[in-house]
Amino acid sequence: MNPVNIEPYKLPADATWLVTGCSSGIGREIATLIASKPNQRIIATARNPNDLSYLPDGNSNILKLPLDVTSVESVDAAFTAAAQQFGENFHLDVVVNNAGYSLSGDTEGATEEEIHQAMETVFFGTVRVTTRSIAVMRQAKERRGGLIFQISSLAGLCAFPGHAFYHAGKFAVEGFSESVAREMHPDWNINFCIVEPSGVKTNFEGHSKANIKPHPAYLDEDMPARKLEKYVNAGKKLGVGMEPSALAEILFMIASREERVPLRLPLGAVSWKLSKSKFETLLGDFEAVKDISAMGQEI
Ligand SMILES: NC(=O)c1ccc[n+]([C@@H]2O[C@H](COP(=O)([O-])OP(=O)(O)OC[C@H]3O[C@@H](n4cnc5c(N)ncnc54)[C@H](OP(=O)(O)O)[C@@H]3O)[C@@H](O)[C@H]2O)c1
């Protein structure tokens, strides 16, 4: 397979960042951090731009724009507005696809509309912003390369009960991003980093969770999804997880350390350990079916 992220990435001193979902949580922390860095420009976006009032007005390095990732018109309008604001020398150096929510609950109970809306945000929204970002990075007059962070999740590597559509969206983002990363011409130096955090201390559970109507066949508290709910709620009470500001600092470190960008970045000990264990289990499963898989050939 052809390699990805071949050359070390060098963050320009006057880099422009674009981040989706900056109203709260991780997106807000990234926008706040970049806005605090001298000469770095931030295009902070949110469905409702009033949610960006925590960023100062009247700073030419800070652009606040409305952007709903589910709307083609909204995404196009944001890219047009950014190009107009920064003029001839408009370039995008770092893009963070952060917007997302989780459709959670009993898979059998989900409606077609709920399923499509979830994929529209998590998967198609990421696709829209990514493809437009690549075009801007590729066409920049002076070739500057670029870096696209996809805020996936441990949920993009491991699947747990009761979140089938969230996992489907994040797994789709991971496959899409890996394929696109392999599609880049090496001279473009366009890099991808799929970020896979475990718990982050944001209000994701309260603010960004859509709950499927409970299905009567899955109510028993011994059902796997009910047990996981209990475990997650206990963890929330204990305040486990990383600070979103720490996650923002790590993204800035990856962008600015002038080294090769990792294609995948599990974040947090839980994410690293569970992902590793998943792949180790998979290797064992592969060995168990090796003779069948070979279909009479040598492996
Ligand atoms: N918190 C965790 O434990 C955790 C772990 C792993 C991965 N993540 C991922 O991290 C990302 C950010 O989540 P968070 O923890 O920071 O929670 P959050 O504070 O609830 O942030 C979610 C953000 O996504 C935005 N959003 C939702 N739908 C959108 C749309 N159609 N267009 C544009 N923006 C939209 C929300 O905007 P509104 O305010 O307008 O709703 C909000 O800004 C998500 O992709 C999530 O899957 C979170």
Automatic annotation (TrEMBL):
Keywords: Oxidoreductase
GO molecular function: oxidoreductase activity
Keyword presence, Oxidoreductase: yes
Residue stretches making up the Ketoreductase domain: 15-193
Pfam families: adh_short
Family affiliation: Belongs to the short-chain dehydrogenases/reductases (SDR) family.
Protein name: Ketoreductase domain-containing protein
Source species of the chain: Penicillium salamii
